[in-house]
Write a structure and sequence with these properties.
binds 2-acetamido-2-deoxy-beta-D-glucopyranose, Ser-Thr/Tyr_kinase_cat_dom, LRR_R13L4/SHOC2-like, 786 residues, Phosphorylase Kinase, domain 1, transmembrane helix, leucine-rich repeat, Leucine-rich repeat, LRR (right-handed beta-alpha superhelix), globular, protein serine/threonine kinase activity, six-stranded parallel β-sheet
Length: 786
C-alpha cells in the first residue's frame, strides 16, 4: 500500500510544483508587460514606444539603437528608451514618483537608458530599489535637485550618466561608495561647490566628465586613478592649480576655468594624449614645445592664456596633428616649419602672440616680454544717465502712454462683431437690480458660476469693483477739464483722472441713446465688471448719471485702470529712453500675458477668444506687471441688447466649445509672436514671423553659442541656456501653422514657469542677478512643480 501510494503522492506534489512555477512565470511576464505598458502611459505615449501593446512579447522584440528590451531568465535586465532629440518636457500631470514606482517593478534591471523623454522632477530616492543597476544613462531630460543620498546604495553602479539635465547642489562626498564606477558624466547641469576628494578613491574610473557646471575650487588629486583616460572639466570655475593626474590620459579638457598655474613638465609624458585643450584660462610660464610632438597628439589648444617661450623653425611636431591653436599667448620666435604646411586638413592658429614674420596678427615684442602683467582687472565703466534725461523720458513715456491706453480702451467699442453675435445666442444675463450695485463685488465674487477660481485669484491686487459717485468722477477729472481729455471713440469720450487715493484711472463716458433702456445699461456694466484680472487692464467700477426728472440713466462712466509704465514693446525693442527688461522680467511678463489669456479663455463665461493680441497691447505697471489692455469686450449694442454672458449654465454647450477651440489657438499664435519679440529684442513684423520662427527652430537645434548669437544682446549674458531654449521652443510651438497643434494656454504657462524656475535657480546659483538692469529684479517667484 505504502509503496503504491508513494509515487502518486510524489507525482501530485511535482505536478503542483510545476503548475505553480508555470503560473508564477506567467504571472511574472504579464506583470512586467503591464509595467512596461504603464511606463509607456506615464511617459505620455512617446512615438518611440508606439509598437508596445498588450500583444507583444517584450522579451523577443528586436533591439534598435533607440529601443531595447533585453530579458534574462524571464526578467528584464536591460531597458533602453531614447526619445526624439530635444524632446519637449512632459506635461504637468507627469509624476516622476509614479514613474519610478513603476520602474522599480523591474528589479533585475542592470542597464537603464532613458534619454530625451522629457522626464522632469527630482530623482526620487526609491530609484535605489533597482539594486542590480550597473549602467544608467538619463541624459537630456529635465531632472533637477540634488543626487539623492540613497543612490549610494547602488553599489554595482559602473556608469552614471546624467548629462544635460538640471541637477544641482554639491557632488556628494560619498561618491566613492560606487567602488566599481568607471564612467561618471555630469555634463551640462547646475552642480556647484567643490568636487569631493573622495573621487580620488575611484580607481576604476575611466571617464570623468564634469563639463559645464558651476564647480569651483581645486581638482582633487586624481593621480591614483591610473585608468583615467578622459577628463573633461571645461566651463566651470576650477583652479588655480593644474590638476594632478595619471599619465594614461587620452583626452584632457580644462577649457574656460580659473587655472592660473604653469603647466607641469609631467604633461609632456602623457604618451597617449590625443586631445589637450587648456584654452581660456590664465596659465602662465613656459609652453612646453614637447607637447607639439607628443606621439598621439592630434588636437592642441592653448589659446587665451599667458604662456611664454620661444619657438624655433626647427621644432618638431607630431605628423598626426589636426589642429593647433596657440593664439593669444606670449610666444616669441618663429613658427616651426612643421606647422607651416598648407594642407587643408590641419588648422594652425597663432595670432595674438609676438612671433616673427607671420600671416596672422601679432603683437609687438614688448607685449610678450612684460612678463609681470598681472591678471588684468579692467575697471567696469558704468554708464550713468543724467537725471534730467530720465525725467524727460518719463515725461515722454507718459505722453505716449496716454495714447496707448486710449487706443486700448477704444477697443472696448470697436472690437469684433462676432463675439457680440455669439453672445447674443446665449440666454440673457441674470438681472442685477440697480440698488444692488454697491454690493456688486461681493455678490459677484460669491457667485461661483460667474467667477472661476482663476478669476478669484486673478483679482488679487485689484481694488474691489464698486459703484463710483458722480462727485468722485467730477473730482477725478477736474470737472472734465480739457487737460484730462484723452480722446473720443465711437461710444463716448475718454478722460484721464486721478482718484482721491492717488490712483490713476481712465474714465470713459457712454451716453445712453434712445435704443438703450436703463436695464441694458445695467446688463452692460454687469458684464464688463467681470473683466477683472491682475493681468488685464481692468475695469474698476462705474457710475450712472441720471436724469433728474425720472432718474433713468443718461450715461454711464466706466472707470478702468490707467497703466502708466509703457507698453511691453517700449521695454524690449523700442527703447530709446529706457534700458530693456532683464531675461527674468521678460519671462515674468510673458507669464503675465499667458495668465491674462488663460483668464480670457477660461476665467469668464463665455470665454473670450481671438483677441488679436499685440505686444503693443501689453502694458506694464509700476511693478512691471504685464497687463493686456486690448481684448474683446462685449459691445453695448445699438439694437437695444447688451452683449450677454451665460450665467445660468456653468458650462458651454459642446458645439460652442468645439467652434471655440480653434479660435482659442489664434491667441496662442499671437502670443508666440510676442514671445519672438521678447527673445529676439527687435520689432517683429507679421510678414517676418515665419522666417523668424524658422530661425528660432534652427537655433534650438544648434549649440548654445549659436543659439545665443541670435537673441537680444541685452539679455545675451544673463539668460540660462535651458531657460532660453524652453522659451524658444514654446514660441515655435505657438507659431505652428496648424492651430490644433498649437499648445494650450495651460501648456504654455507651464513651460514659461519652467523657464522661470530654471533661470531663477541659476541666478540664485551663480549669484549674478545684477545684469545691468535699471530695475531691481522682481521678487523671484519660485514655483513648485506639484
Ligand atoms: C496627462 O494628461 C493628458 C491629457 O492632457 C492625458 O492624455 C494623459 O493620459 C495624462 N497622463 C497621465 C499620466 O495622467
Ligand atoms: C546616453 O545615451 C544616449 C542615447 O543612447 C547616447 O547618445 C549618449 O551618448 C549616452 N551618453 C553617454 C555619455 O554615453
Ligand atoms: C549651490 O546651489 C545651491 C542651490 O542649488 C545653493 O543653495 C548653494 O548655496 C550653492 N552653493 C554654492 C557654494 O554656491
Ligand atoms: C581653441 O579654443 C578657443 C577657446 O576655447 C576656441 O575659440 C578655438 O576655436 C579653439 N581652436 C580650435 C582650433 O579649435
Ligand atoms: C634649432 O635651432 C636653434 C637655433 O636656430 C639651435 O640652437 C637648436 O640647437 C636647434 N635644435 C635642433 C633640435 O636642431
Amino acid at each position: 500500500m505504502k509503496n503504491r501510494h508513494f509515487p502518486s503522492a510524489l507525482l501530485l506534489v511535482l505536478a503542483t510544483v510545476l503548475l505553480s512555477i508555470h503560473r508564477s512565470e506567467q504571472l511574472h511576464s504579464s506583470s512586467y508587460s503591464q509595467t512596461l505598458l504603464r511606463i509607456k502611459q506615464l511617459l505620455n505615449f512617446p512615438p518611440i514606444l508606439s509598437s508596445w501593446n498588450h500583444n507583444i512579447d517584450f522579451c523577443s522584440t528586436d533591439s534598435t539603437s533607440s529601443l531595447t528590451v533585453i530579458c534574462y531568465e524571464g526578467t528584464i535586465t536591460q531597458l533602453n528608451i531614447v526619445g526624439e532629440t530635444r524632446a519637449h518636457i512632459l506635461p504637468r500631470n507627469f509624476s516622476i514618483d509614479s514613474f519610478v514606482s513603476s520602474l522599480v517593478r523591474l528589479p533585475s534591471l542592470k542597464v537603464l537608458t532613458l534619454v530625451s523623454l522629457g522626464i522632469w522632477g527630482p530623482l526620487p530616492s526609491k530609484i535605489a530599489q533597482l539594486s542590480s543597476l550597473e549602467i544608467v544613462n538619463v541624459s537630456s531630460n529635465f531632472l533637477y535637485g540634488a543626487i539623492p543620498q540613497e543612490l549610494s546604495l547602488l553599489s554595482h553602479l559602473q556608469t552614471i550618466i546624467l548629462d544635460d539635465n538640471m541637477f544641482s547642489g554639491h557632488l556628494p562626498e560619498w561618491m566613492d561608495s560606487f567602488s566599481a564606477l568607471t564612467v561618471l558624466s555630469l555634463k551640462n547641469n547646475l552642480f556647484n561647490g567643490s568636487v569631493p576628494d573622495s573621487l580620488s578613491n575611484l580607481e576604476n574610473m575611466r571617464i570623468l566628465s564634469l563639463s559645464h557646471n558651476h564647480f569651483l575650487g581645486s581638482v582633487p588629486d586624481l593621480s591614483r586613478l591610473t585608468n583615467l583616460q578622459v577628463l573633461e572639466l571645461d566651463d566651470n570655475g576650477f583652479g588655480p592649480q593644474f590638476p594632478r593626474l595619471g599619465n594614461k590620459l587620452v583626452t584632457l579638457v580644462l577649457r574656460n576655468n580659473k587655472f592660473r598655474s604653469s603647466i607641469p613638465d609631467k604633461v609632456s609624458s602623457y604618451y597617449q594624449l590625443e586631445r589637450l585643450d587648456i584654452s581660456e584660462n590664465t596659465f602662465v610660464g613656459p609652453f612646453q614645445l614637447e607637447l607639439l610632438s607628443l606621439p598621439s597628439i592630434t588636437y592642441l589648444n592653448i589659446s587665451g592664456n599667458k604662456l611664454t617661450g620661444m619657438l624655433f623653425e626647427n621644432n618638431s611636431c607630431n605628423p598626426g596633428l589636426e589642429a593647433v591653436d596657440l593664439s593669444s599667448n606670449r610666444l616669441t620666435g618663429s613658427l616651426p616649419k612643421c606647422l607651416m604646411t598648407n594642407s587643408n586638413d590641419r588648422t594652425v592658429l597663432y595670432a595674438g602672440n609676438c612671433l616673427e614674420e607671420t600671416n596672422q596678427n601679432q603683437n609687438a615684442l614688448p607685449f610678450c616680454h612684460t612678463e609681470a602683467i598681472a591678471v588684468g582687472i579692467v575697471p567696469e565703466v558704468k554708464k550713468h544717465r543724467r537725471v534730467s534725461k530720465v525725467v524727460l523720458s518719463l515725461g515722454i513715456v507718459c505722453g505716449t502712454m496716454g495714447g496707448v491706453a486710449l487706443v486700448a480702451l477704444l477697443f472696448f467699442t470697436v472690437r469684433r462683431g462676432n463675439v457680440k453675435s455669439k453672445m447674443k445666442k446665449n440666454p440673457p444675463t441674470k438681472l442685477i437690480s440697480e440698488n444692488a450695485a454697491s454690493g456688486y463685488s461681493s455678490k459677484l465674487l460669491s457667485d461661483a458660476r460667474y467667477i472661476s477660481q482663476t478669476m478669484k485669484f486673478g483679482t488679487v491686487g485689484l481694488p474691489p469693483y464698486r459703484a463710483f459717485t458722480l462727485e468722485e468722477i467730477v473730482a477725478a477729472t477736474n470737472n472734465f477739464d480739457t487737460a484730462s481729455f484723452m480722446g473720443e471713440g465711437s461710444q463716448g469720450k475718454m478722460y484721464r483722472g486721478q482718484l482721491k487715493d492717488g490712483s490713476l484711472v481712465a474714465i470713459r463716458s457712454v451716453k445712453r441713446t434712445k435704443s438703450h433702456s436703463t436695464q441694458d445699461f445695467m446688463h452692460y456694466t454687469e458684464l464688463i465688471s467681470k473683466y477683472r484680472h491682475r493681468h488685464l487692464v481692468s475695469v474698476l467700477g462705474h457710475c450712472f448719471e441720471r436724469y433728474l426728472d425720472d432718474s433713468s440713466a443718461s450715461s454711464v462712466f466706466i472707470v478702468s485702470e490707467y497703466v502708466p509704465n509703457g507698453t511691453l514693446r517700449s521695454w524690449i525693442s523700442d527703447r530709446h529712453y529706457r534700458k530693456s527688461l532683464t531675461w527674468t522680467q521678460r519671462i515674468e511678463a510673458a507669464i503675465g500675458v499667458a495668465k491674462g489669456i488663460q483668464f480670457l479663455h477660461t476665467g469668464i463665461v463665455p470665454g473670450v477668444y481671438a483677441n488679436n493680441l499685440k505686444i503693443t497691447d501689453v502694458l506694464l505697471d509700476q511693478n512691471f506687471v504685464a497687463k493686456i489692455s486690448s481684448y474683446t469686450l462685449p459691445l453695448l449694442s445699438n439694437k437695444g441688447k447688451a452683449g450677454q454672458g451665460n450665467p445660468s449654465s456653468g458650462f458651454r454647450s459642446p458645439s460652442l466649445k468645439k467652434s471655440v477651440k480653434c479660435e482659442d489657438k489664434s491667441d496662442i499664435y499671437d502670443f508666440g509672436v510676442i514671445l519672438l519679440e521678447l527673445i529676439l529684442g527687435r520689432t517683429v513684423k507679421s510678414r517676418n514671423v515665419d522666417t523668424l520662427r524658422d530661425l528660432l527652430q534652427t537655433s534650438i537645434a544648434a549649440d548654445g553659442e549659436a543659439r545665443r548669437s541670435i537673441i537680444d544682446p541685452a539679455v545675451h549674458k544673463a539668460c540660462l541656456d535651458q531657460s532660453l531654449k524652453t522659451m524658444m521652443e514654446i514660441s515655435v510651438r505657438c507659431l505652428v501653422k496648424e492651430p490644433a497643434e498649437r499648445p494650450s494656454a495651460e501648456d504654455v504657462l507651464w513651460n514659461l514657469q519652467f523657464a522661470a524656475q530654471v533661470q531663477d535657480a541659476w541666478i540664485g546659483d551663480s549669484q549674478s542677478s545684477d545684469d545691468g538692469s535699471p530695475i531691481s529684479p522682481l521678487a523671484s517667484q519660485r514655483m513648485t512643480f506639484h
